[in-house]
Amino acid sequence: MAANYLIYFLLISLIPLWASVKVQTTAKKYLKVHNSTNMTGYEVARKILDENGLYDVKVEEVHGFLTDHYDPRTKTVRLSSAVYNGVSLTATAVSAHEVGHALQDQENYAFLRFRTALVPLASLGSQMSYLFLILGLVLGFLNMALLGIILMGFAVLFQVVTLPVEFNASGRALDQVVALGIIRNEEERGARKVLSAAALTYVAAAAVALLELLYFLLQFLQATRNE
């Protein structure tokens, strides 16, 4: 049992750490490589948005490193300073990726809508599942533990649904920057590496979420057998 717990703990600790290191090293590497059109991340975002008729979507600068995101509520693409002002392949790829989410929003992309609908349940699951699981398993309240598993399941489902959303946004990003001539053919490989590394963080998050759910599910089943 102790060995199994150690393996579980190492996996949920090392998988996200590896993904984080990978994305940061890749992003920093291609921050040093300029795109041939010398367009900033802001200009890349604005060009793709305008070419697709999304004139009402705003592009704003935010602080932090890799804090880039798209807010569907306010129709705003928010880019970190290094991306907003940068002319690197990292800035180009990340900016285009976030605009990819705006394009998904424009066409009511099914997985994006599903993920958005899951947010309240996923948030509740993330906040409350451990409380119900730990109290339920420690005190022997198996119905409470089962509720915790169900709540955790919503959080896990959110992570899983995030994967096609992010992969699709990256695919759209590459299509746009190539079709609009923002990057040349020889630069596509670098942009693809940045996007692939970023995708690892979502894969890692989903893998860890599934491992945690499996671990607690096995604990619950064991407690049920021992009752």
From the structure above, extract its key features.
227 residues, peptidase activity, three-stranded mixed sheet, Zn_peptidase_2, mainly alpha, 6% strand, protease, transmembrane, membrane, 7 helices
What is the alpha-carbon Rg in Å? Answer: 20 Å
Helix fraction by DSSP (H/I, runs of at least 4):
over 70%
Kindly report the spatial arrangement of strands forming the biggest sheet: 1-3-2
How many β strands by DSSP?
Answer: 3
Roughly what is the average pLDDT, rounded to an integer?
93
Distance between the termini: 19 Å
Q: Biggest sheet: strands, sense, closure? A: 3 strands, mixed
Helix-strand pattern: HHEEEHHHHH
Runs in which pLDDT lies below 50 for 5 or more consecutive residues are none
Oligomer: single chain
